[in-house]
């Protein structure tokens, strides 16, 4: 764009040509500064972020999967406890065992 403006200014409009040339040169300077900024950001910001994403996402995915498994185990133990507690057939031993299972699953989920 800046080259087109400079070229246009050099053609017909002699009265405004100097202003248009300065505008084109300013745009060229701005574009060069933008390129330099992007080039300087590459090693300082973009590359480290790409490395972080590449290296850390797998471990985060593993952690998420282990949390999901622990949550599922806790929910299953809680359901088992609720069924044992509300069922008239189960004795104190069953409720005590399911309570222990639920507490263990809850501890595993919370850690």
Could you give a quick summary of the protein structure above?
The chain is mainly alpha-helical and 111 residues long. It has helices at 2-11, 17-86, 92-110.
Overall helicity: over 70%
Query: How far do the termini sit from each other?
Result: 58 Å
Spans of at least 5 consecutive residues with low confidence: none
* Contiguous helical run count: 3
Strand content: under 5%
User: What does the average pLDDT come to?
Assistant: 80
Q: Which series of helices and strands comes N to C?
A: HHH
Structural class: mainly alpha
Largest sheet: none
Q: What is the number of E strands?
A: 0
Radius of gyration: 34 Å
**Mass-distribution shape:** rod-shaped
Can you characterise this structure?
It contains three helices and no strands. With 111 residues, the chain is mostly helical. Helix 1 runs antiparallel to helix 2 and helix 2 (17-86) packs antiparallel against helix 3 (92-110). The longest helix has 70 residues, at 17-86.
Characteristics of this structure?
89% helix, 111 residues, mainly alpha, rod-shaped
Would you spell out the secondary-structure blueprint of this structure?
Layout: H1 2-11, H2 17-86, H3 92-110
